[in-house]
Input
Amino acid sequence: MDASLLSIQPNAPEPLYRQITGQIRRLVAGGQLRAGQALPSVREVAGLHAINPMTVSRAYSQLEAEGLLVRLRGKGMVVADLATPPDLAARWALVDPALDALARHARELELPADALLDRLKTRLKEDLP
Amino acid sequence: MNAMLDVSDSAPLLSPPAAPLAADGLIKQYDHDSVLKGVSLTVEPGTVLGLIGRNGAGKSTLIRAMLGLIEPDAGTATVWGEPALRMGDAAKQRLGYVPQQPEAMAWLQVGEMLDFIGRFYPRWNAAYVDATLERWQLPRNRLLAKLSPGERQRVAIIRALASQPELLVLDEPASALDPVGRRELLREIASRAGDSGTTVLFSTHIVSDLERVASHVAFLHAGRLLLHSELDSLKERNLRLHVPEAVAAQLRDDVPGEVSRRPHPYGGLSITVLRGEDAPWPDLVQVPGVRAEALPLEDLFIEVSA
Output
C-alpha cells in the first residue's frame, strides 16, 4: 500500500490518528487492502504528510490491538489474516456514520430527498479520488 | 532509622527528571502594557508543544522569558530545572533556539558562520549542515547580509538542528517561509521528535501547521494561557451544541464544561462545551432535539477567547 492513499486533513475536527485508523479499516473492509499486504512504514506516512510519527504509531498500535494489523519481523505492519472476510453488515457499519451526517445536513438545509439521491447516484458513477 | 535512610536514598530515583522547560506565574509588562499576565506552562520531555495565538498575544515574550532571554517582572522560568536566567553552558549546548528574527552576523558568509557556531556544540553535525544547505539551495559563500528573510530563517533553522539539540525551540519558524519551505520544516520537526525524542516548543499562528506535528497545544490569548492540553484529547473533548428554543428556555444554569454561549442564527442557542479529561458529556447532549458536532480547532480557539 502506498502512503499517499491515506488522506490527512489537519483542519478536520477528527484527530489525525483516528483519520488514519478509519481509512485503514475502510480499505480493509472494502478489499483494497488484503490479508498479508504490508502497510507503509510509520516513517513513510509521517514523512509524506509532514505529520508526527507518534501519531502514525498510535494509529497502527490501535489497529494492532484490535487484531486488524499484525507486526511481522522484517515486513513491518501487515493486514491480519481475518478468520472471515468482513461481511456486508460490517461494511455498512463503517459507512453509516457518514450517512447519518449527510442525512442530518440535508434535513438542516431542507434539501429535497429525491434531488439528494440523484446527486449521490451521480457521484457513485464517477471515479472519486 | 534504617527505614528513613532507605527512603532518602531512593528518593532521587523516584523523582521524575526535570522538565525541559517550565514557567510558573510569569508576568511581564512593557511600558505599563501587560504582555504576560501570569503564565504557567510546562513542556514535558519528548512532547511537541505548539504554542498558538494571534499576533500580539505574547507568544514571543513567553518564549523569551522561558529561555531566560528577558527577565520577567514576576514568576520563574526553569530549563531542565535550572533557573533560565542563569542557564549554564551545558544546558545551552543541549538547546536549539530559532528566534523570530534571527540575529545576523551580517559580515560573515553562511558557511563561515555555521562553522564558527559549530565549534561551541559537542554534537555538531557538519554533514547535516552540508546536506541541508544543498537541499535548500543555500550557497555556503553567500554573505548573511545578502540573504532574504526566508533564507535567513532557513540558515537559523539549520544552525539549531545541526547541534542535535535535546530541546528545540522555534519562534514563528514558518513566518518567512513559503508553503513548500513550511512543509519541509514541519517534516523535519516531526522526524526529530519521532526519531530522536527531541522535545519541541514552537509558536505559530497557523493552526493547521500545529495540527500536523504537535502532540500538545497551548493557546495564549492577550497574555493568558486559555488552554493547555494534549492535542488529540482536545479534539475529542469539545462539542458545539445546537439547542432548540424549547430546550433552551428550560436551561437554568451553565452546562458543565461550558465555554461559550450565544444565540443561534436560526433560533435557540449555540453552546460550546469542553469536558474534563475523564468527565462525561453533559446530559444536555442526550436531550432530544439537541444536535452536537465537534469543532475544528480554529473555531474552538475563537469560542474560548470570546
About this structure: The mean pLDDT of chain B is 90. Residues 179-196 of chain B form the longest helix (18 residues). The two ends of chain B are 58 Å apart (CA to CA). The domain at 21-222 of chain B is CATH 3.40.50.300 (Rossmann fold).
